[in-house]
Every structure is written in structure tokens, then in C-alpha cells.
């Protein structure tokens, strides 16, 4: 596997973070990351609930007008308004 095993890389990255950010900044970074993940999960949950409720509501089919018999469409005036 070469000189460094995968767990060596993890330890190396943790040490580099400690050197760069120090011991005081890491808890704040972890807390901020945790709050971000919690916010994303909450947003996904709300979005899925909203989607499910929207899918549960079936739209009503359009009702025919009172003067038209059912199953017969009114003629379309496609040529109306054109100067012939």
C-alpha cells in the first residue's frame, strides 16, 4: 500500500488541522458543522413532507358548463378576430 496506510492519512490530516486552527477553534468549527448538517436534514424533512402532502391532494377534474351536455366540447373560435 505504499508508505502510508489510510489511517496514517487520517491522523496526518487531524494533526495538520490542529496546527493550523489550534485547539480553541476546532470545537467551534465542529459545532458549526453540526448545526449546518442539522439544518440540511430539517430542510430535507420539511421538503419531503410538503411533497407528500402535495401529492396526496388530487386535483378536481374540470366541471362541464351547465348549458353544455356532458361529453360535448364547445366549438373553438380559431378564426375569430381576424380580418377576412
Explain the overall architecture.
Helix content is 61%, strand content 0%. With 84 residues, the chain is an all-alpha fold. The chain starts with 5 loop residues before the first helix and ends in a 28-residue tail after the last helix.
Pattern of helices and strands? H
Measure the end-to-end span. Answer: 84 Å
Quick one: overall form? rod-shaped
Number of strands: 0
The value of Rg in angstroms is 32 Å
**Structural class of the secondary structure composition?**
mainly alpha
In round numbers, the mean pLDDT is 79
* Major sheet size, sense and barrel closure: none
How much helix is in the residues?
Answer: 55-70%
Q: DSSP helix count? A: 1
Percent strand equals under 5%
Low-confidence segments, given as residue ranges, are: none
Short summary:
The protein is mainly alpha-helical and 84 residues long.
Strand and helix map with partners:
Layout: H1 6-56
Which keywords apply here?
mainly alpha; single chain; 84 residues; 1 helix
